[in-house]
Amino acid sequence: MSAILFGSISTIADTSELQRTAFNRAFAAHGLDWNWDRDTYLGMLESSGGAKRIAEYAESVGATVDAKAVHESKSEFFRESLAGSGVRPRSGVIDTMKAAKDKGSKVALVTTTSPDNVGALVAALGPDITVGDFDLIVDSSTVDQPKPDRAAYSYAIRTLDETAESCVAIEDNLNGVDAAVASGLSCVAFPNENTAGHDFAKAAQRVDRLDFEELQKVTRTA
To answer: On the CB side of 206, how many CA atoms lie within 13 Å of its CA?
Structure first.
C-alpha cells in the first residue's frame, strides 16, 4: 500500500454533529426559523455539499435564501465550535498514520471542504495531528468539482505519483465512496456518527476502527 487517502475531515475526527449544530446556528443568524434535528439531518447526508443542501431544503419548503451566504456563516460557526470542542482523532487514526510513516506509505487528506475548515480541524487536533503529518492536502481550493466527481482523487493520485491500485481511500459518506470507486481506488467505509445507517455496498470493506494492516489487505496490489 503506497498511500492512504483520508477522504474527509470526519474520517479523521467525527465532526458530524458539530456540523449540524453549525447549520442551525447559521439559520438563526440569517433569520430563518429552520431547525435540522438529527433525524432530518441524517436523511440529507446521502448527498454532500453544504450550500447545495441548503438550497435544496429552501426549495422544498418554498423559501428563497442566499444559500452561499448561509453556508459561509455555517462554516464560520463550525470553525468556532471546533476550537473549544475537545474533538479527538477517531479510533485507530493516529496509530494508522504512524504505521504508514513507519512503513514508507504516504498519507493524504483528499477532501473538497474549504482550506479554512481543514486548518481549523488540524489546529483543534494538534499536537496529535499536524499539517506536517500529511504528504498532501487536497481541498476546495485545489479542484473545482466536489465529490462524487472523481477530480479530487484523480488529482491526489497524480500529485503523489502513485497508482490507484496501490492506494486505499477512507470515506465516511456515500458521495465520497462513489468518487473513490470512480477513480479506481479500493475504498474502506469508516462511517461517522451520522452516516452509520447508510448502505456502503460499493466499499470494499466497512470498519469501525482503522488498522494499517487491515487496510493493506484491501488494496488492489495486496
So the answer is: 14
